[in-house]
Amino acid sequence: DKVQPVLDAAERESEMALLDAIREQPGVWGMDPVLDALQTGRVDVLVLPWDLDARIWRCAEGWFGGTPEMAKLFCDDPQEVALRDHVWDIARDFGARLEFVRGRPEERLKREFSGIAASVRW
């Protein structure tokens, strides 16, 4: 009982440090920039809110866009889907690690980074 609060605080501190690093690196944030970097293999760590409710657009060929307009660069008829249903496969396919954040880091991610951010390899 005494250890869990200390572990939770350390985890939140680590998540805040990751967001700081993404801001300073610079990393990328916002749905379309992150999906673009992810699908070109540039993302090292993909940071998402614990309460993930974002919607994205999927092309039948497997490409994703954060907006219908961006997805239409890859196909004519993208379908709206839940990011949570595809994020594991996208991350795996392009070699990215997932980091879900909670509490203050989650609030910061939503406020300062439009709800999604990533550290990049190059």
Give your account of this protein's structure.
By secondary structure, the chain is an alpha+beta fold. It has one domain (3-52, 83-120): 60s Ribosomal Protein L30, Chain: A. The protein is 43% helix and 23% strand. The strands form two sheets. A four-stranded mixed sheet has the order 1-7-2-6, sandwiched between helices. Strands 4-3-5 form a three-stranded antiparallel sheet. Helix 1 packs parallel to helix 5. The model has no long low-confidence stretch (mean pLDDT 96).
Average pLDDT works out at 96
- How would you name the CATH homologous superfamily? Ribosomal protein L30/S12
Strand order of the largest sheet: 1-7-2-6
Q: Whole-Å distance between the termini?
A: 42 Å
> What is the helical fraction, as a range of percent?
40-55%
Can you count the beta strands? 7
Stretches where pLDDT is under 50 for at least 5 consecutive residues are none
Q: How many discrete domains? A: 1
The protein's oligomeric status is: single chain
Q: Examine the coordinates and then state which fold CATH places here, giving the name of the CATH topology.
A: 60s Ribosomal Protein L30, Chain: A
Q: Based on Cα principal axes, name the global outline.
A: elongated
Rg for CA atoms: 15 Å
Task: Briefly characterize the structure.
By secondary structure, this protein is α+β, with helices and mostly antiparallel strands. 43% of the residues lie in helices and 23% in strands. The chain has a single domain (3-52, 83-120), classed as Ribosomal protein L30/S12 (60s Ribosomal Protein L30, Chain: A, 2-Layer Sandwich), CATH 3.30.1330.
